[in-house]
Amino acid sequence: MKLPPDFRRRVLAREWLTGTFLNLGSPVTVEIAGLAGFDWLLIDHEHGPGGEDTMLHQLQAAAATPAFPIVRIAVNETARFKRALDMGALGVMVPYVSTADEARAAVAAMRYPPHGVRGVAKFNRGAGFGGDFEEYYLHAHERLVTVIQIETPQAVENIDAI
Question: What share of the chain is helix, strand, coil (3-state, %, to 5)?
Answer without folding.
Answer: 40, 15, 45
